[in-house]
Amino acid sequence: MSARLRAVVLLSGGLDSATTLALAMGTGFECYALSFDYGQRHRRELEAARAIAGALGAARHEVVTFDLRQFGGSALTADIAVPKDRARDDIAHGIPVTYVPARNTIFLSFALAWAEMLGSSDIYISVNSLDYSGYPDCRPEYIEAFERMANLATKAGVEGAQVLTIHTPLIRMTKAEIVETAVARDVPLALTWSCYEPQPDGAACGRCDSCQLRRRGFTEAGVDDPVRYA
Question: Looking at the domain 6-221, which fold is it?
């Protein structure tokens, strides 16, 4: 594949999105990383996204700003406690309070607009239907539906100039498999950030759902996690 082909990659700054960026670049795409300052609980993940985009050599990195705190409804955008110390079965079932209403639909819409402007037919997103089965906008059927909609909703799609594909390389991986893939692709693991509620001293809390899933993944993969936990 020619490196001249472009892809838009959604980059949160976490382990999964960093691995997805590395996979897209390894496929030969010129990658345009897209992050969002949407009023989330902390800015640490945006710092991580900037560092990762630079370290992996993204052609460009943009941060789009809007404020979902106007709507609230999530522990990440409202004064709602982040769940801690939940059992593995509890994490795997139900829709958690950290779900941000319509977040992936909003993110993919921005990615679609940028892709059309770039003349790109490819968007990468790091959704996972195993570890985050409770998030409705991480399911394969949702991604397939958005892809169909996108090809109906754009000038490029209607005129046949491009057929958009949404790539989800991690969607059926376990967290341990994602860690193994990250290591194989030389992802700068120390730059990634997963915690929903970083501590005042800069450490990850180690107790939220995201920290627990990450730590378990590193343990099961037999890889040392370079992130410092409280």
Answer: Rossmann fold (3.40.50)
